[in-house]
Each structure stands twice: as C-alpha cells, then as structure tokens.
C-alpha cells in the first residue's frame, strides 16, 4: 500500500488528497508506521478524540499575543496569515510544525472570508474577531488536515469529506447477519469518499469486495504478505500521560522550548512504567492506561527498548486545574504528549 501512496505523491497528488480509510483505528497502525518509517511520508489522523487546538502551547502563545490588544484593527491590505507567520517567526517556532500549519490554514480561511486580496471586497478585521474564529475552528477536524500529510481515518470519521484518491482497507467489517446491512452502508460511505480513484485492499476474503465491480474499482489482494516483525503506531492523548508528575512541573522551561516532531525518548522505570525523557532529562511519565496499552502490544518495560526516532513530541498540552465551585483557574502547566512509531 505504501507503494501506491508514494506513486500518487510522485505523480503530483497533494498528500492530503490521499486518504486511507479503515473500519477501526487499530487497522491503520501498520499502514501509518510503514508510510512514515519506510516511505518517509507523514500521516495525519482525523479522529474525534483529537487534542483540542486551544489547549496546545503554540495556540496559547498566539492567543496571548492577540488578547493583549483585542481592539487592534488589521487593515484590509494586511493579511491575517502574514500576521500569524510574523508572530511564529518572532517566537522561533517552525512554520512546518503541525499546529502552526493548522493555525496558518485557519488564517487563510479568515482572509478568504474577509475578501483579502480583492481591492473591492477586502475588509479590515478586529483582532477580537480573529480570536473568536480560532475558537470556532477549534473542534472542526476538517481544518486539522495537514496539506503535506496523507490522511488516515475511519469510516465514521470520514463522513462528509472527499479526497482525490482513497485506499479502503476491507478488513475489519463484520459479516454477521444482524450487522451486515449496517456494515455494507458503512463500506459504501467509505467508497464514495473518492472523487477520482478508489483502491480496495484486503488481507482476508471480504464479501463487500466481491460485491463490487472490479472493472470500476481496482482490488489489491494482500493475503499472505508478511509485514515487518514489529509495527506499532500510537498517537497518545492526555489520558496516556501522568499529568500531575512533579518532574513535568519542574521542567517547564525545557518543555516550552520543544516543538512537535522533536525527538524524545521513553525509558523504563524500576516501577514498571515509562518515563518521558529529553536529552537525558526526565520531563514526564506515562499513565497506567498507556502502560497497559503498550504491554498489550508486547512492549514491556522489562524487555523492550525504544530506538532513536521511534518516539517524538506529538503535542505540548496545556493542563489546567481549577476551583470546582467557581471554575477559576488555580494552576496550569504544559505536558509533553508523545507519539510512538515503531517499524522493525
């Protein structure tokens, strides 16, 4: 499959116009790891449990800058995009950082809506309106699409979206009699996300594949293909990290300088856990949930050692503690949320 994706990218298809769709998220782990580790093509997961945009360090820094002068008016000949880019450069953030790219994309949408670039339509905009727009875009997964990354998602999460090329993994759909009609509809929804090209691929026989016309939809039979010995992809969330870890609180200077994609490490502790490290400095600890998940993938603290490049920063997350009665924020700090990608 990675060869098919690479072929599309090499032929000029924008990576974000290629989507790999599966019935379940766990079926996508192997494909993500192979694409990123073997083909060097980044992936972007569209899922409902994404980390909130406004809880990200980069977004918080931008909001603080904007909120310092909410009544400032951006003239019609000045773009929101250029204002964002100037700020990110000033604070030395990489413009290729995923959250930075997402915020710049939001800025482009705001500019389009205000008619920027058209002398007859362009309107000035108040900074407070820009702030409001960021919050409005906060939970919209479509605006989290990275133009340089192949989209990976499930049949449920892809509803309403379309892509030039779609690769649909036919494994994982239930053929039970009481579920088959619902599963068939879901399969159809995924198929119809393709605007130009659809590829069906499977590793075990599929009733839904046999029901399609092979003259219209190419089918790739991967039965018997042996993948690398260990493939594992894990996009962690705040639930996978011990948010109140003291070493995290005392490492804020280090954490706030990290960028998404920076190399970090997971090292086993003496108490059957994994500590998050950067340059040999402990900056975090995984939760028991994450340890259990990793153990279920045969990644055990007593026998497994992560190699350089297998663990990176997925997100710098703002953790907030507040008064239960008043809702007033009593404390806050930033936490590194890791991403694991293993392909051996």
Question: How would you explain this protein's 3D organization?
Answer:
This protein is of the alpha/beta class and about 350 residues long. About 30% of the residues lie in helices and about 25% in strands. The chain has helices spanning about 1-10, 30-40, 55-65, 80-90, 100-115, 125-135, 180-190, 205-210, 245-250, 250-255, 290-295, and strands at about 20, 45, 75, 125, 150-155, 165-170, 195-200, 220, 230-235, 265-270, 275-280, 280-285, 310-320, 330-344. The chain has a six-stranded parallel beta sheet. It has a three-stranded antiparallel beta sheet with strand order 9-14-13. The chain starts with a helix and ends with a strand. The relative contact order is 0.14. The mean pLDDT is about 90.
Which secondary structure elements does this structure contain, and how are they paired or packed?
Blueprint: H1 2-10, E1 18-22, H2 29-38, E2 43-46, H3 57-67, E3 73-74, H4 80-90, H5 98-113, E4 125-126, H6 127-137, E5 150-154, E6 163-169, H7 180-191, E7 194-202, H8 207-210, E8 219-221, E9 231-235, H9 246-249, H10 252-255, E10 265-268, E11 274-278, E12 281-285, H11 288-296, E13 311-322, E14 329-343
Parallel strand pairs: 1-5, 1-6, 2-5, 6-7, 7-8
Antiparallel strand pairs: 3-4, 9-14, 10-11, 11-12, 13-14
